[in-house]
Amino acid sequence: MSEANNNKQQPCEEQNLSEILRVRREKLKALQDAGKNPFFETRYDVSHHAQEVKDNFDAMEGRTITLGGRLMSKRGMGKVSFCDLQDRSGRIQLYARRDEMDEVVYDEFKKYDIGDIVGVCGEVFRTQRGEMSIRVKDIKLLSKSLQPLPEKFHGLTDKELRYRQRYVDLIVNPESKRNFEIRSKFVAYLRRYLDDLGFMEVETPVLSPIAGGANARPFITHHNTLDIDMYMRIATELHLKRLIVGGMERVYEVGRIFRNEGMDTKHNPEFTTCELYQAFTNLDGMMDILEGILSGAAKEILGTYQVNWLGNEIDLTPSWKRVTMADAVKEVTGADFMTIEGDAEAAVALAKSVGVDMDGVDKTWGNALYETFDQKVEETLIQPTFITMYPVEVSPLAKRSPADPHLTERYEMFICGCEMGNAFSELNDPIDQYERFKKQAEKRAEGDEEADMMDDDFVLALEYGMPPTGGLGFGIDRCAMMLCGTDSIRDVILFPTMKPLAE
Fold first, then answer.
1. N or C end of the chain, less CB within 10 A?
2. Which of 419, 473, 427 is nearest to 293 (CA)?
3. pLDDT tens-place string over residues 177-188
């Protein structure tokens, strides 16, 4: 089709839409003038849902029930009409005959539009073609749809429009609704799993005068009464560990996190995490918990340990691979950093020899090891893999390894090259913690907006004594992405952050 024809067609489409909008508003006005304003309806008692009828059809056949939902299609044949009614559980066919209903009600029903919300009273039966249906006895308009739904064969296919108009997306795209059902079931499973282990769910502040617990750029706001700038939290870690000091021993929080950083298919400025802390355990205990949560959730929600994600068949069967960062680097690149441990110059040279870009990075042994892993190894980790023993330089809140002071008892778990969880044997030495905060604060003063701030109160809390503790944090959104098999975080966040449309 030529550009000229395209230009001619667009006004025609706009005219058609304008006509539809006009007609629907005229129908509404006619109802209001007749004293039948659908927006005055306040309640309709629903006894059953569509899928419930289908699942229990033999027992329910012949019973009169009530349903509420949205009309998704209409097929009229004179005195007989067929419709599809959609509720929260799915769709079911409506069968309406003029001679089996009040004629006035039937005639009004014939004027209803696709998208209208109705209440239906009818008998469960099967049509001659075998379709499980509802033989309508009465139908009532509960809310008028003034906007047409997307054309049924193409639906709402524009991804950006789906994210902006999630309400329409949920109406016409069943896979979107499925994603959020899976997400909800995952969070429910997570809470049940941790509760059964004796964890207590708590809530910590979203606003704080200090942004800590992660290397991330925060959002800044201002508290008028106190006349101070505050930060929206970038992690829940430091408050949760204060509770471990207080003797709670096992705590977790599922909460919203805010980071003023880039956006892509795996990152949204606001997202949901679960952080948990358990006294008297270590890194190994945290590996067992994350493995148990993800494998157990897959089995319960999907019925299998096998998941297809980002083009890969993932096996979540328990007993995942566990390997140190240095060994993983050696396995993939051949570079053995442990033979030159502590030698910064040699480590930087070794990293560069395998193609690692060290520009803009502090030239230390630990940073050279980490950058080699980050640039060369991470993307190769397809099946669930725990990478352990991170350098001190990149782990300011983790406990040093008793066997090697250059390393910390920290892990990250990867699937399909994506970081799925971050855990430590938590640092509980207040003197060591103060020195690490001090180094982070120096970086921040030099312009690193993602470096940790000094948190004197947290150091004070550690001075009262925190038991050996394991801590774990992971993103709910990314776990949902994996379970849903979707490649964008926006597919599992109901209302993702979007750039406003130009006016």
1. C
2. 473
3. 999 999 999 999
